[in-house]
Design brief:
single chain, 451 residues, alpha/beta, Rossmann fold, Helicase, Ruva Protein, domain 3, 3 domains, five-stranded parallel sheet, 20 helices, 13% strand, binds adenosine-5'-triphosphate
Length: 451
């Protein structure tokens, strides 16, 4: 039987909720505030349902205090703001008070189903609702770590709204995949999804590419161009690497977002549009704002909701799940007829390696191993990962700050090889994209050797 801890200062709400849950075959415990809740062992519970504002500490503090147990937040301020804040802090979901009894039970069942899929059917009454309306099928995303489950849930909550979302995370963590999944589960799923990589378009062309231009607007504008924003009309525009957008284009984009109106370069006529914006960046936009490289007003406009994708190394066993999935996927694609498997040593290396290029780097390694391995077994050597690299990192991980060890290893690796390799070769040898290598150079302050 599932155990649920209710943390609520208003005794009527607390006892009503307890009765409702118990009628549905859940076992409950109650606490009046966060301090009282802390007297319990959180690991004994399958779910915590907590109010936010209570005497003493905020209910959202439980999200960190009970790191292994999902926390469902109840907020009497049905405002989006309080809910967003709770979700940002890592709450599994939120529910507005006064809550509808049916909605509460469905929500609880859904959370428990996601966290304990193998036992949800223990009691017929606790079966999740068969209603698919708010099911978020994230089938392209592999990984069942708690951080990813929380991420899926957050995506589910925001997909149907029209708010602008900022997706953050290192290169290769799946930001574009997330944007596509959100668009797919939005009410605009039948309309265009346009993806623009702001880092890949020359700065001189970015305005005309995004906003369009009239014929003759500038030298070389031989034809009228409708622009990518208009191409996404009624649908979704995904602005990847928005931190790379030049300041002038940022000002123009802000106007478009605020007014939902667009004016082509060289035109005096504005046109009404209806576009939902999803943005992504691997950069710290707040820092860019402080440095005067990103407009503060645009920053606040796009980070209405911020969803963060964890680095692969912080997702525990997801790396193995994803590797096995990619092995199947690419075996099929490469038409490999035998069922290849990772040896125990390979699995151990997959788990230890810090994956600076995240899932993209893992995908490269899996593809390479399928091609290089002889027979059914995929040995460590086939993965093309530098073992010393991974062993060194493991030792470092055991003893010191992770970021520091990663920086040290990256710097050492680049310094050793960069004199004899081009950037492309160096990236290939590390099993990451050139973009990822460039980002790491920036992050760890390891500039290119100009010679
Ligand atoms: N959880 C996951 N499960 C399976 N495949 C994944 C997962 N996350 C990412 N991928 C795959 O990894 C690759 C990189 O993902 P994606 O392009 O979405 O990352 P990104 O964060 O947008 O990277 P960048 O910032 O470099 O553009 C894609 O092929 C994507 O399908």
């Amino acid at each position: 039987m599932y155990k649920i801890l209710i943390v609520e200062d208003e005794s009527i709400i607390r006892s009503t909720l307890a009765r409702l849950l118990e009628r549905n075959k859940f076992q409950t415990s109650q606490a009046e505030n966060v301090d009282q809740a802390c007297e319990y062992n959180f690991d004994d519970f399958d779910l915590i349902i907590s109010d936010v504002r209570m005497p003493g500490r905020l209910g959202t503090e439980l999200i960190n205090l009970a790191s292994n147990t999902p926390v469902l937040i109840m907020t009497s301020f049905a405002s989006m703001r309080a809910a967003i804040d709770a979700i940002k802090l890592g709450a599994i979901d939120y529910i507005a008070k006064p809550f509808d009894h049916q909605e509460m039970i469905e929500c609880v069942n859904k959370i428990l189903q996601d966290f304990k899929p193998q036992t949800i059917s223990e009691s017929p009454k606790t079966k999740p609702s068969p209603k698919p309306s708010n099911e978020f099928n994230f089938s392209d995303f592999i990984g069942s770590s708690q951080v990813m489950k929380t991420f899926y849930r957050q995506c589910e909550r925001v997909a149907k709204t029209d708010v602008t979302i900022l997706i953050t995370g290192e290169s290769g963590t799946g930001k574009e995949l997330a944007a596509r999944a959100i668009a797919l589960h939005s009410n605009r799923n039948e309309k265009p999804f346009v993806s623009v990589n702001c880092a890949a378009i020359a700065q001189s062309l970015i305005e005309s590419e995004l906003f369009g231009h009239e014929k003759g607007a500038f030298t070389g504008a031989v034809n009228t161009n409708e622009g990518l924003i208009l191409a996404a009309n009624h649908g979704t525009l995904f602005l990847d690497e928005i931190g790379e957008l030049p300041l002038e284009a940022q000002a123009r984009l802000l106007r478009v977002m605020q007014e939902q109106e667009i004016r082509k370069v060289g035109s005096s006529i504005s046109k009404k549009i209806n576009v939902r914006f999803l943005c992504a960046t691997h950069r710290n936009l707040k820092k860019l704002v402080e440095q005067g490289l990103f407009r503060e007003d645009l920053y606040y406009r796009i980070q209405v909701i911020e969803l963060h994708l964890s680095s692969l190394k912080d997702r525990g066993n997801d790396v193995i799940e994803i590797a096995q999935y990619l092995l199947k996927k690419h075996s099929k694609k490469l038409n490999i007829l035998v069922d290849k498997t990772f040896t125990t040593d390979s699995l151990s290396i997959l788990r230890q390696y810090p994956w600076p290029g995240n899932v993209r780097e893992l995908e490269n390694a899996v593809q390479r191993s399928l091609i290089l391995s002889n027979g059914v077994n995929i040995e460590p050597v086939d993965l093309g990962i530098d073992y010393e690299f991974s062993e060194l990192d493991q030792t470092a991980m055991d003893t010191q700050d992770l970021d520091f060890s990663e920086k040290e290893i990256f710097t050492q690796y680049v310094m050793t090889y960069q004199n004899n390799l081009s950037e492309t070769q160096l990236a290939q040898q590390m099993g990451v994209s050139r973009k990822c290598l460039w980002e790491r150079r920036q992050r760890f302050d390891v500039p290119r050797n100009k010679n």
